[in-house]
Amino acid sequence: MKEIHGREFPGELPAALKEESLTIRVFPDPILKIPATPVERFDDRLASFVDRMRLAMELHDGVGLAAPQVGVSKRIALVSFEGVLYVLINPVLLGQEGEQEGEEGCLSFPGIYAAVKRPASIRVTARDLTGEERLYEPEGFLARAFLHEMDHLDGRLFIEYLSNLKRGMIRKKMYKRAVGEDE
Q1: Of the listed 101, 149, 160, 181, which one is catalytic?
Q2: Cα(82)–Cα(14) distance, rounded to whole angstroms?
Q3: Is 97 noted as a catalytic residue in this protein?
Q4: What is the pLDDT of residues 14-32, one digit of tens each?
């Protein structure tokens, strides 16, 4: 049973639902390395795009998704955690404390997971869909998810936190996948 947009689907998802979804960009797609530009218009078009991002994130069982991952270089990120959807538009990191280490994966690196060190708690401001500024103070896993998605907005990927050796191995594997040489 899969829940998408609050509806449960017992088997195969309807083709129309899949067609509405945005395509997830996979490394080495160059858009993943380009810093995103700020959102300036808060309108129905933005809300519709965010809704389509949410659909793509849910279809791929993601915890978060950043606009560059669907080919749009705008500072928009989503994080879904414990039933709450966080819409982060033009997020700014105000502060951080502590340190944690945990496993991360990424929809743009399917099947790749690695331990990454990040701050244990953060303070972030971001605009919501109406353009209103919100303050968030996530800790633990939620802080990790926020930072992972915010990194995407700066063109930074989670593999950049890994050793040169591990990062090189992942890049090689992803390049092989891109040309169809991997499994």
Answers
A1: 149
A2: 26
A3: no
A4: 665 666 678 999 999 999 9
